[in-house]
Each structure stands twice: as structure tokens, then as C-alpha cells.
Predict the 3D structure of the following.
Amino acid sequence: MPEISETLQGLLLIDKPAGLTSFAVAHKIKNILNVKKTGHCGTLDPAATGLLLILVGRAVKMQETFMKKDKVYTSSFLLGTVTDTGDLDGNIVSKKDFSDITQDMIEKELNRFKGEILQTPPMYSAINHNGQKLYKLARKGITVERKPRKVFIKEAKLLSYNNGTIDVRIECSSGTYIRSIAADLGEVLGCGASVSALRREKIDIYDVKDAVTQKDFGDKEKIIANIKSV
């Protein structure tokens, strides 16, 4: 068995594929590099793709610092469909007609989300409640009260609207839930909405364009070469 590396440390940018949890990606990198510790800096839902920051080795102690960085997402919202998870992985709770919704209406309501807002985290989230993850409680059918939290939305831009699908670009503070923005936007529009696609493009100065991808997981040397000093 290869000796565990004590010297490898730093920051690795990963373009997370759909279908893998953030923890699974961090664990995969840990095994590839044969290091004692890895940690990711901000959970992406399994269905989501995009930039995942992985801290390697002793750099894991900086996890909290990177968790607090601003983020940029592109996302698609499906109007007229509400699910229990806020995305299309969940069970449909309601379906409503959205045929009277116009692009002007969407842009007007989306503008209201800019700046500092109060946001209630979804039950299907990784937030801890009395030592348990909220999503684990939600899977048991348990709903608990969640306190609204202040988040800052620097940009909420409508990219396109076609046949009930809204494409948006959102630049926001850490702790922001895009599923909550979709749900809240759907509520004010009167038809409901769920996230149908989510991709994280940037975290602070780090861009997904500079990230290694799943196809690189078999190339240990390439992964090592892409570890950044922090």
C-alpha cells in the first residue's frame, strides 16, 4: 500500500459532475492522492454541477475561510411545478398554470431579490439541527422551524425565458440557497417554481473554467499539478 503523503497540501478546483455528492468527490480525491485529509468548501447538491473547492492535507484547516466566499451560479427554474425538495429530484407537491407569466413580470419580481434579503433555508439542506442534518429529518417526513437568515444577492439576472423555463445568473453571498430563490420567485409569481438545473461558475476569484474534471481523476500527476498554494 502506498505511503500516505504528508507533504501534499493546497487547494484543488474540481468541476463536479452531476450524480456525485460533494463528500464523495472529496473522498475520491483523498484516495487518489493518498492523503490523510481532504475537505470541500460548500456543498453542491448531487444533481448540481460546477465548481467545488477541495482543500488537501493541512490546508483543510482553512475550510471555514473558503466557505465564506461569494459565489456565482447559473440556474434554470421550472415554473408551475413545486416539489418537496425545491428541485426536480423531489416529489411533486403541486402543479399550476403559468401561461399568463411574461418575461417583464419575471424581471420585475427577480429585481426584488437584489441586495440584502432574508431567506429561509430549505428542509432539504445540509444545515445542522440539534446534531442532525435537516435533509435527514426531511427524509423521515419531519419538518422543523428554520430561522430566516440574511444573505446578499449582488446580481439576479434573467438570461432567458422560454416555455416555462427561466434561466438566471445569480451572484450571491455564502449561505444563499438557489432553491429558496426559485421557490420564493415562484410564490410571488403565483405559480410556484423549482430548480431544474444548477451550476456553480465561480467562488471568489476561482473559476470553474480552471478546474479539473471527472475524466482527470485517473491522472494523479495532473491532479497534483493543479493543486494551488493557499
About this structure: The CA atoms of residues 175 and 221 lie 34 Å apart. The chain has a mean pLDDT of 94. Residues 71-203 form a domain with the Pseudouridine synthase fold (CATH 3.30.2350.10).
